[in-house]
Specification:
- This protein has 615 residues and is α+β, with helices and mostly antiparallel strands.
- Among the domains are: 9-92, Phosphorylase Kinase, domain 1; 99-313, Orthogonal Bundle (Transferase(Phosphotransferase), domain 1); 394-496, Tetratricopeptide repeat domain (Serine Threonine Protein Phosphatase 5, Tetratricopeptide repeat, Alpha Horseshoe), CATH 1.25.40.
- It has helices at 45-50, 54-66, 99-105, 112-131, 160-163, 185-188, 213-217, 224-240, 250-259, 273-286, 298-313, 328-340, 344-357, 362-375, 378-391, 396-408, 412-425, 430-442, 446-459, 464-476, 480-493, 498-510, 514-527, 532-544, 548-561, 566-579, 583-595, 604-614; strands at residues 9-10, 14-21, 25-31, 37-43, 77-83, 86-92, 145-147, 153-155, 198-201, 204-206.
- The strands form three sheets. The protein has a six-stranded antiparallel beta sheet with strand order 1-2-3-4-6-5. The protein has a two-stranded antiparallel ribbon with strand order 7-8. Strands 9-10 form a two-stranded antiparallel sheet.
- It is globular and about 100 Å long.
């Protein structure tokens, strides 16, 4: 998976302007084609390569974050997009730094009023997040609290610690002391105010300086009460300017969180005795070792903070801010994000709301049409493509997507006309070249299809699907070596594509490379266990390697998933007839295959009858 550099585009749309690396993540400052600024976040390749199932979990956690309605104290996650084998979450850009930076900048003087305001805002954001269905944040710390230029705190990175953790349900390092080796925290950054998310042990991710004791022990079962503990650590740091448990090794961090009593907060000369007492009581209650002894909710914590704020400043604590009115632009982005997650109906609802706010919005029509196209409703897709083109007839991507929809509808001539229109508007429209290549393939013009797909890849080399289409065309042209190279380069971009592994397996099987073929199907099945065609072909390949009984098991698995797989029925019959001599069972399978339209080897059914009759 290639690493991005400044100047590259994510999904041919968001231009990378700045790159920031953390303990396990990579953050990109990106600019959209309409000049809007966003932040795109993903994880480093070494994290991805060690965790085969991480993408689904990342997407699941980001979906929950995206589903949170806008709130002034939550960084808005807009969409998840996959690019070059990695999913990226696109977030609003918050310009103003982090709470960690504010803590460091308030080293002198009375920091209390400002920090109380931030703490109250934090509580408001967390209450809203839990009401939206978030179970636990799992990585609360000052670095995950962004501050706007007008001093509004926004919580970010909901669920990302869980997204990359592998130990999300079982016992963690406390039941496996061998995983707790002494390690310098120059790597783990535990004592730093901006401590980094890192692997603690056994696939458990977190920031050790801020983690609740139970989070070390049973990462997958933590609740909002672990977030209360992490807030307690952060709140202590906000008030005191230092951590309550400054461990210097991972083992020490765990020991301190597990058993050490929190130190007393330093008493500022300006604080009254009541303020000092309430701050101490609140902090210690949040840092209780037993979750049951902590405050039960952030609403409860907010009430206590309101009292402290009144005592400390003489003023009423700030009320919860109202979310600004949602815009059509925001609704479009949310709809686009849900579409990318295949949540078609939710995406359509957001896009239709955008059109209610902005009826002449060509982009909303385009995204709505694209959603219907991907959902498989080409009638509605084409209707909205026409509306989008009526509003903006110069948008080449609309013409290209319209061509793809027409292709799915079987209207190949119109689809080709739409491709040509897109390319007339923009000769660098890679999608138009790609769809044109597919259309030429349909008509058997393989050399012309090859040229169109080569052009699409030249324009946009990061699209693995184009490489797969070109590989299929080259296979039909007899150029199997280059086809194999294309499949493999596609897998370098996206090693998580079950379909690409399957297609490569088919190609290798056609060349008699059965063991390599089986390895490809194994990859496909690890990604998609119910891929019935991979199961069928693996069974056939095992038969070719004289492992018929083993192959029969995979054919049975395929038929359990897809009882209408005529190839599986036929190959099962062949094994039963030729190898196992189970003629009655073979006859039944041949008849199943024949009823589904499969050609049967001449004389096979009659031979079964003969063997059955001779017994």
């Amino acid at each position: 998976m290639p690493e991005l550099a400044i100047g590259d585009f994510i999904c041919d749309r968001w231009n990378v302007r700045r790159i920031m690396r953390g303990g396990v993540g990579i953050v990109y400052l990106v600019v959209d084609r309409d000049s809007s600024i966003y932040v795109a976040k993903t994880f480093q390749n070494e994290i991805i390569q060690k965790q085969f199932e991480w993408r689904a979990r990342f997407t699941q956690e980001c979906t929950a974050w995206i589903s949170i309605d806008p709130h002034p104290n939550i960084t808005e996650a807009l969409l998840v997009r996959e690019f070059a084998g990695k999913p990226y979450v696109l977030m609003e850009f918050v310009e103003g730094g982090t709470l960690a930076e504010r803590i460091r900048s308030h080293q002198s003087g009375d920091r209390l009023p400002a920090m109380l305001r931030f703490a109250i805002q934090f509580c408001d954001g967390m209450v809203h997040a839990y009401q939206a269905g978030i179970v636990a944040h799992r990585d609360i710390k000052p670095a995950n609290c962004l501050i706007t230029r007008n001093d509004t705190l926004k919580i970010t990175d909901f669920g990302l610690a869980r997204a990359i953790g592998t130990n999300t349900s079982g016992r963690g390092p406390a039941s496996d002391k061998a995983s707790y080796v002494e390690r310098p925290l120059a790597r783990f950054r535990a004592p730093a105010p901006s401590g980094r998310l890192t692997m603690v042990a056994n696939g458990v991710f977190g920031t050790p300086a801020y983690m609740a004791p139970e989070q070390f022990e049973d990462f997958g079962s933590v609740t909002a009460l672990a977030d209360v503990y992490s807030f307690g650590v952060m709140f202590f740091e906000m008030i005191a300017g230092s951590l309550p448990f400054p461990g210097t090794t991972l083992e020490e961090c765990y020991r301190l969180h597990k058993s050490a009593r929190p130190p007393e907060l330093p008493n500022h000369a300006r604080w009254s005795a009541k303020v000092a007492q309430r701050l101490s009581t609140l902090t210690k209650s949040c840092l209780e070792k037993s979750p049951k002894l902590r405050p039960g909710s952030f609403a409860e914590i907010r009430k206590e903070l309101e009292t402290v704020f009144k005592l400390a400043t003489g003023s009423v604590a700030p009320q919860e801010s109202n979310a600004p009115p949602v815009t059509a632009h925001e609704l479009i982005l949310r709809g686009e994000g849900l579409c990318a997650l295949k949540k078609w109906d939710q995406a359509i609802a957001y896009l239709e709301r955008a059109l209610q706010l902005s009826p002449q919005n060509a982009r909303a029509q385009f995204e709505l049409a694209t959603t219907h196209y991907l959902k498989g409703d080409q009638t509605r897709a084409l209707l909205h493509f026409e509306k989008a083109l009526a509003l903006d007839p110069t948008h080449s991507l609309t013409w290209a997507h319209r061509a793809a929809s027409l292709e799915r509808a079987g209207r190949y001539r119109e689809a080709m006309e739409s491709c040509e229109q897109a390319l007339a508007l923009d000769s660098q429209c890679w999608m138009a070249s790609a769809v044109k290549g597919r259309l030429l393939r349909h008509s058997g013009k393989y050399a012309a299809a090859r040229d169109a797909l080569v052009e699409a890849i030249k324009i946009y080399p990061f699209q693995p699907t184009c490489r797969n289409w070109l590989a299929d065309v080259l296979k039909r042209l007899g150029d199997r070596d280059h086809a194999e190279n294309l499949y493999r380069s596609s897998l370098e971009l996206d090693p998580w594509s079950a379909e690409t592994w399957y297609d490569l397996g088919v190609l290798l099987g056609e060349q008699g490379r059965f063991q390599d073929e089986i390895e490809c199907y194994n990859h496909a099945l690890q990604l998609e266990p119910k891929h019935s065609n991979a199961l069928t072909n693996k069974g056939v390949a095992l038969l070719a390697l004289n492992r018929a009984t083993e192959g029969l098991g995979f054919l049975d698995q395929a038929l359990a998933i897809n009882p209408n797989d005529k190839i599986a029925w036929f190959m099962k019959a062949e094994i039963l007839f030729v190898v196992l001599k189970r003629y009655a069972d073979a006859r039944t399978c041949y008849l199943h295959a024949k009823s589904l339209g499969q050609a049967i080897t001449p004389g096979r059914i009659e031979a079964c009858d003969g063997h059955i009759g001779s017994k």
